[in-house]
Design goal:
alpha/beta; Amidase signature (AS) enzymes; 11-stranded mixed β-sheet; about 40% helix; about 10% strand; binds glutamine
Length: about 500
């Protein structure tokens, strides 16, 4: 058993679940393997903001006891899962990678946390992010910059960079992130793993620190589509504490992978293959399209004519909602409070001045501007109308297609510092993902190749609302015929 622990950290959650089920390994051994791996690698990767070894091992012991009694709570009982540090777990830090919440400890569980606890998983560490999930490189964290395990000089993507990098580094077999404009799919793509943003409303946002409420959605990261399906089945479902949570039957996503076989009609939106797309990324995605064609799928060129409006629309709506959501961090209640204050106004102003960093302030200022009287109609209201038009483009494409296929990101992982001085360049990293959030659709990224420099390339598949089962099956068909998920960085 001990020799096996050397290789445990790159096993899929499905494989780990089988080992636990067959009693070939215990959750304590497994959890120790991930703790050791994290300790051995996180000085260079810096994916974790915090973790509590003793607490993780206590959860693992409880899981082993359940399994010994023949009463596992789910297939993932005893398997470690790590969370982006913007999701609430009672008694754990919940910093959102912001100084304003540096010392905040959550007094409650998010809906996803409750679901994970009911499934008996081991809640492992808290993962780094761009402050309040605003960014595409994890360089906006107030505490540390996470590295891409494939090349430590490069960024892992963002904002869920810690969630993606920890998985790619073998520090956790599963993790959760949040995706407002691409923050799960873009880092998954840049780190060579799978990441999914479900349909808006499928997973409760209760206990997720709000960035832009009409766009935010929690979703899984994993090594394989099957692992994503497993985790999604646990966290999806209605919750009355999120008024946008959707009442729908949650299918068995894992079983659905094998039952839905195609052939499918695959739409290729031409606007995603134009200027700014790296030729190596383009070639890999075109190879993936050719694969589906060989499998008997119908490939159809479609158009999302309003795609070029997605980025400006997003940066109006997301900043407007952020400016309102972040008003709660006021220095009065649970946040950082400035010590240099003479009156109540000082408390608000100075606490926020000291607590938020530059990018967050930029968004609050932009958002306050677009919501202010006189500009509301010209910016905010217009952006909402354009948002509807973008969604209509997608729904029209879906009249004749089962799924859309695009690159996830225009380039592979860029170097640290390369775009941090130029917000617009950074914003452009999400050019292919943002419209999916504006339209509320499910989307995922899975590996489809490597560049000549050995950096991962991701494929984005976009599905119809609440058709996650079909979307996962289509991705699974590609994954099963390739061995990208078996490749890992050398650390
Ligand atoms: N990069 C985008 C932004 O900075 C998206 C972030 C996200 O999805 N959380 O807003």
């Amino acid at each position: 058993m001990t020799t096996m622990t050397e290789h445990l950290f790159y096993k899929t959650a499905t494989e780990l679940s089988a080992l636990l089920e067959k009693k070939e390994i215990t959750s304590v051994e497994l959890t120790k393997a991930f703790i050791e791996r994290t300790k051995a690698t996180d000085d260079s990767v810096k994916a974790f903001l915090s973790y509590d070894e003793a607490d993780a091992l206590a959860q693992a012991e409880a899981s082993d006891k359940r399994r010994a009694e023949g009463k596992p709570l789910s297939a993932l009982d005893g398997v470690p899962v790590s969370l982006k540090d913007n999701m609430a777990v009672t008694g754990q830090p919940h910093t959102c990678a912001s100084k304003i919440l540096e010392h905040y400890v959550s007094p409650y569980d998010a809906h996803i946390t409750e679901q994970l606890k009911k499934a008996g998983v081991v809640l492992w560490g808290r993962l780094n992010l761009d402050e309040f999930a605003m960014g595409s490189s994890t360089e906006n964290s107030a505490f540390q910059t996470t590295a891409n395990p494939w090349d430590l000089e490069r960024i892992p993507g963002g904002s869920s960079g810690g969630s993606a990098a920890s998985l790619a580094a073998g520090q956790t077999p599963l993790s959760l992130g949040s995706d407002t404009g691409g923050s799960i799919r873009q880092p998954a793509s840049l780190c060579g793993i799978v990441g999914m943003k479900p349909t808006y409303g499928l997973i409760s946002r209760y206990g997720l620190a709000a960035f832009a409420s009409s766009l935010d959605q929690i979703g899984p990261f994993a090594h394989t589509i099957k692992d994503v399906a497993l985790l999604l089945g646990i966290i999806a479902g209605h919750d009355r504490r999120d008024s946008t949570s959707y009442k729908t039957e949650i299918p068995n996503y894992v079983e659905a992978l094998e039952s839905k076989k195609g052939p499918w009609t695959i739409g290729v939106p031409k606007e995603y293959f134009g200027e700014g797309l790296d030729p190596e990324v383009k070639a890999s995605v075109e190879k993936a399209i050719a694969f589906y064609k060989d499998q008997g799928c119908t490939i159809k060129e479609v158009s999302i004519p309003k795609l070029d409006l997605a980025l400006p629309t997003y940066y109006i709506i997301a900043t407007a909602e952020a400016s309102s959501n972040l008003a709660r961090y006021d220095g009065i209640r649970y946040t950082h409070r400035s010590e240099d204050t003479k009156n109540a106004i000082d408390v608000y102003f100075k606490s926020r001045e000291e607590g938020f960093s530059e990018e967050v302030k930029r968004r609050i200022i932009l958002g306050t501007y677009v919501l202010s009287s006189g500009y509301y109609d010209a910016y905010y209201l217009k952006a909402q109308k354009v948002r509807t038009l973008i969604r209509e483009d997608f729904m029209k494409a879906f009249e004749s297609c089962d799924v859309l296929i695009t690159p996830t990101t225009p380039t592979t992982a860029f170097k640290r510092g390369e775009k941090s001085a130029d917000p617009l360049q950074m914003y452009l990293s999400d050019i292919y993902t943002i419209s999916v959030n504006l339209s509320g659709l499910p989307g995922l990224s899975l590996p489809c190749g490597y560049s000549s420099e050995g950096l991962p390339i991701g494929l984005q598949l976009i599905g119809k609302p609440y058709e996650e089962a079909e979307l996962l099956s289509i991705a699974h068909a590609f994954e099963s015929a390739h061995d990208y998920s078996a490749k890992h960085p050398e650390l």
